[in-house]
Design a protein that fits this description.
CATH architecture of the largest domain: 3-Layer(aba) Sandwich
Structural class: alpha/beta
Distance between the termini: 42 Å
Strand order of the largest sheet: 4-13-12-11-8-5-6
Number of helices: 15
Largest sheet: 7 strands, mixed
Number of strands: 17
Length: 473
């Protein structure tokens, strides 16, 4: 075992990791990376099948991003953003607003996805205070949602494993049924694959009570949301949604029309919408932002992860001029937004993020992604009939494969069997690093992955699933 591995086990504590198991293993120690690959200390090469937790956009060590970082390092590495500003932050702010959906005009920087969400929650809450509506202290979110691990973000999270233990510390949120057709509580929708390449036309908004052609359901999920919104609209500061894909819940893909339908309900009842695009932003769904697929214009937009292309921690919360102006006033009125971080708008991170956005344009990243999205769809369709696969789902270049022990009933594997982890180990033996969400395999390589390497990732996952052996059909 290497020195780094020994020191790690002696001193470190990893996120989302059972340390009792970690201490027994022999961890991979990454020594370098380039493109879609990284190498460990032993010189072994692995394809990054999950973009290093969904952050790497064009690949590791992109030459243009390396140069941007070095250029900025020759000027200034960091200065506070309290009472000062700098060119990288200002230029990046303009670039983000130019890219963003209409109606967003202001950028507030932070450090990561959870803090971007915290900013949006606090802004929405304080906005209503300035408007004199002091009862707006609650929020609306989806069951199965994940918005980060800070207490505010956990308060609007709908995954019990991340939330339940901290219940006494959380503020009140209302949770509406998630539009998850595979395990629909109304039992109207069959477990058909939900495969959206990102090239589909903008769908009509879903309407509660209207029959949905694909499943025969009547948008019961939207109907339940409408009732909760109508009942609580005067107490809701905002609603927060992961547009189109609920990532941590297992890459759940929303049926076409749901997002627009929910946005319509919120607007009708005067409830602002926070779009948490931390995972879905910057091309993952086939467009720069997921809300674009359904023509939704959020009141707040949270971005992070791929904002710097996977180089440095940086996040941003975008909002409109109406919200911004509600915070303006005389010093003694204390309307200031009292929130910030020591590394807010770090110049190194802003410079790399700005160049990252230029790379998207210069290299036509989203255009080149189309054949790879189609290849992913083809692979998932082929997997759908496998007796170990209960459901496949895709939105653009994000996909999930849910493993089951009984395809007829879609019964899950026992937790102790750890089917997802078994497939992950099998893929690792074939040179592909992936990290499942329980028994949902995540397919999320860098946008810049070559077709050849994409096929290697898919092949390793397919072989890993086949290696689970016979299960009940």
């Amino acid at each position: 075992m290497s020195r780094a591995a020994r020191l790690d086990k002696q001193y470190l504590w990893h996120p989302f990791t059972q340390q009792a198991e970690w201490e027994k293993g022999d961890p991979l120690v990454v020594s370098r990376a380039r493109g879609a690959r990284f190498w460990d200390e032993r010189g072994r090469s692995f394809l990054d099948g999950v973009s290093s937790l969904w952050v790497t956009a064009h690949g590791h060590r992109h030459p243009a991003l390396d140069r941007a970082l070095k250029r900025q390092l020759g000027r200034v590495a960091h200065t506070t953003f309290l009472g000062l500003t700098h060119a990288p932050a200002a230029e990046l702010g303009k670039a983000l607003i130019d890219l963003a959906p209409p109606g967003l005009h202001r950028v507030f920087y932070s450090d990561n996805g959870a803090t971007a969400v915290e900013v949006a929650l606090k802004m929405a809450f304080q906005y209503w205070i300035h408007r004199g509506e002091h009862r707006r202290t609650e929020f609306l979110a989806l069951e199965g949602s994940y918005h980060g691990d800070t207490l505010g973000a956990v308060s609007v999270g709908g995954i019990a494993a991340f939330q339940k233990k901290f219940g006494p510390l959380l503020f009140k949120s209302h949770f509406v049924p998630a539009p998850h057709c595979f395990r629909c509580p109304s039992r109207n929708a069959p477990p058909a694959p939900e495969l959206r390449t990102g090239d589909e036309p903008v769908p009509a908004p879903g309407r509660p009570g209207a029959r949905r052609a694909e499943t025969g359901c009547r948008w019961e999920c939207l109907g339940a949301a409408e009732k909760i919104v109508q009942k609580n609209s005067r107490r809701l500061a905002a609603a927060i949604v992961e547009p189109l894909v609920q990532g941590a819940a297992g890459m759940r893909v929303m049926p076409a029309g749901y997002l627009a339908g929910l946005a319509r309900i919120l607007k009708k009842n005067g409830v602002p919408l926070i779009a948490d695009e931390v995972a879905t932003g910057f091309g993952r769904t086939g467009r720069m932002f997921a809300v674009e697929h359904e023509g939704v214009r959020p009141d707040f937009l949270c971005v992070a992860k791929a904002l710097t292309g996977g180089y440095l921690p940086l996040a941003a919360t975008l909002t409109g001029e109406k919200v911004y102006r509600a915070f303006l006033g005389r010093y003694e009125e204390f309307k200031t937004f009292f929130h910030g971080h020591s590394y807010t708008a770090n110049p190194l991170a802003c410079a790399v993020a700005l160049e990252n956005l230029r790379v998207y344009r210069r290299e036509d990243t989203l255009g080149k992604l189309r054949p790879k999205r189609r290849r992913l769809t083809e692979f998932l369709r082929g997997l759908a009939a496998d007796p170990r696969v209960g459901h496949v789902r895709q939105m653009g270049f994000m996909a999930g494969v849910e493993l089951v022990s009984d395809k007829k009933t879609n019964r899950s594997f026992p937790v102790s069997f750890r089917a997802g982890a078994r497939v992950g180990r099998a893929a690792l033996a074939r040179g592909v690093w992936t990290r499942p969400l329980g028994d949902v395999l995540v397919v999320l390589p860098p946008l810049g992955v070559s077709m050849r390497d994409l096929n290697r990732v898919l092949g390793a996952l397919g072989a890993g699933i086949a290696g689970l052996g016979f299960v009940k059909k």
